[in-house]
Amino acid sequence: MAGQEGGLTGPDLAAGVAASDLAPGAKLLGHAFGDPVLLARVGDDYLAIGATCSHYGGPLAEGALDGDTVRCPWHHACFSLRNGEALRAPALSPVPCYRVERRGDQVVVAGKEERDALAPTWPAPLPSRDAPRRIVIVGAGAAGSAAAEMLRRCGFGGSVTVVDTEERSPYDRPNLSKDYLAGNAPPEWIPLRPDGFYAEHGITLVRARVARLDVSKKSLELEGHPALSYDALLLATGAEPIHLGLPGEDDPRVHYLRSLADSDGIIAAAREAKRAVVVGASFIGLEVAASLRTRGLSVDVVAPETLPLERILGKELGTFIKSLHEEKGVVFHLGRKPARIDKTAVALDDGTSLDADLVVIGVGVRPRLALAEQAGLAMERGVTVDEFLRTSAPDVYAAGDIARWPDPHTGQRTRVEHWVVAQRMGQTAARNMLGAKERFDFVPFFWSAHYDVSINYVGHAEQWDRVVVDGDASQRDVSVRFEQAGRTLALATIFRDDESLRVEMEMERAIRR
Ligand SMILES: Cc1cc2nc3c(=O)[nH]c(=O)nc-3n(C[C@H](O)[C@H](O)[C@H](O)COP(=O)(O)OP(=O)(O)OC[C@H]3O[C@@H](n4cnc5c(N)ncnc54)[C@H](O)[C@@H]3O)c2cc1C
Ligand code: FES
Questions:
Q1: 86 CB less than 6 Å from ligand 2?
Q2: What is the sign, positive or negative, of the torsion defined by CA atoms of 116, 54, 422, 240?
């Protein structure tokens, strides 16, 4: 029975479909036992997994098949079609996997396989014989939390200790400026895992600040907590907002946004406030502007550039983003800087005064490098790591916003501030601690959301000599390709998920040739 009932679409795969309906490399969305199921043909194999991405519920049937894997169209997670394993972040949990039987000329989804989220099913034969026994991770953000989980997914049986200053980490940091701040995501969506999850999987979370790292003794000093020794260490301390040091910046109406506590502080202030000034037209600044408009506040954005995000997304998308925010009522003060923050207003460098009972400063971040610097690790505007994410100290790895790695796609050492990159770095570092020797060669990916528009970006381009625009940003159907000497360095898209995935896969193939 084909059907739409209960939100299910396509054929009932438990009742069977004709094998000839699926050519090799084809996929079909259907349902089985009340759930959406993706059936795919890989060579002569028919494989079935849950059709809903375990990250934010993206439709895997609209994603891209790549061998025996499928990539999610929304934020490029990747799942094994053979066992449902989440092979690439941002998805951390597998999707269900189904038994498929051939009955005559019919292919039938015969039953669901049950398993634990961190069941050790990772394909590499890990851990190796000389794997460490005690692994410590500093930072329970994107990289640190993904690394800790990956150690268990690889079957690592030693101790895993994650140290973080924050009480509530790890949580979904990208959401803090988007749906959570806008009031569209309830608090229970924000933790990456439910209460008790880490303890259940033998991952110890220590709430303390790591004050000192001694790489010769392989030990860490913690504030208010006994020292920790390690056999292998991952540094994943992330980044912190840049402070402008303006007169009046220490006023309680002034906020920065990095942590869940910061986002909660802005939400509490927004309940009382009517007029907000956002300083900085960065991704975070503009996402905050969108969220505060959604809450009904008037929003002024002050920034020194003439077009928001032009340096990263080019003129076409910069113009679109600006007009999108203006349509929603945001007032820009471009080419301007704040001079000081007064009791009820923000004074600009041209003498303009903007009334404000809430001020959010989003002018960029800087990596938190103090620990790595104090330990004497090699640095280069970030912590220098090799292709296996090893730092200059034995058995010390670094990942996420602090790590500058040799990016094979650009041929340059690169450091980015992207959620998915940080998670994947954490996962690669974890496997390498266990002896995998995997190069970190993922194509960088990030997304940014403004109202109902999401921008996806694959690759990395700091400079380009040609921009190829296809489509129309104002129609929310566009791709912008950034090229250097005829090579695609990056692609930004709005509602062109197929193209974004295709270019990502082309970039991967280009370095594996
Ligand atoms: C509001 C917001 C929205 C964002 N949106 C997006 C987005 O849409 N897309 C995207 O790609 N990226 C986004 N990012 C960026 C993304 O969140 C970061 O790139 C990512 O979190 C970096 O991961 P990380 O593990 O390196 O650091 P973090 O996630 O910042 O984690 C670092 C952790 O280390 C802890 N720590 C630091 N120093 C110490 C110490 N000495 N001792 C103990 N603990 C310590 C911190 O408390 C923190 O919990 C956003 C960032 C913010 C703040
Ligand atoms: S919804 Fe699938 S990767 Fe985000």
A1: no
A2: negative
Q: Could you tell me the distance, in angstroms and rounded to a whole number, from the CA of residue 392 to the centre of ligand 2?
A: 34
pLDDT value of position 5: 45
**Amino acid identity of 123?**
P
Q: pLDDT (tens digit, 9 = 90+) per residue, 64-85? A: 999 999 999 999 999 999 999 9
Protein residue whose Cα sits closest to atom 3 of ligand 2:
75
pLDDT value for 281: 97
Nearest residue to 434 (alpha-carbon basis) of 161, 235, 154? 154
Q: What is the pTM of this model?
A: 0.96
pLDDT, position 407: 95
Which residues form the pocket of ligand 1, taking CB atoms under 6 Å from any ligand atom?
Answer: 138-144, 163-166, 169, 173-174, 176-177, 209-210, 236-239, 257-258, 284, 368, 371, 400-401, 417-420, 422, 446-448
CA distance 185 to 206: 27
pLDDT at 163 over 90: yes
Spatial separation of the C-alpha atoms in residues 7 and 29, rounded to whole Å: 12
Please measure the distance between the N-terminal and C-terminal CA atoms of the chain and give it in whole angstroms: 45
Mean pLDDT (whole number) for 166-177: 97
For residues 361 and 315, the answer to whether their CB atoms sit within 8 Å is no
Q: How far is CA 119 from CA 4, 85, 135, 359, in A?
A: 33, 10, 19, 45
The b/e string for 244-274 (b: 16+ C-beta within 10 A; e otherwise) is eebebbeeebbbbbbbbebbbbbbebbeebe
The CA-based dihedral angle spanning residues 172, 178, 183, 184, taken in that order and rounded to the nearest 10 degrees: -80
Phi, psi of 229, rounded to the nearest 5 degrees: -105, 155
Q: 3-class SS at 433?
A: helix
Beta strands in 295-380 (DSSP E): 298-303, 331-334, 338-341, 345-348, 353-355, 358-361, 365-367
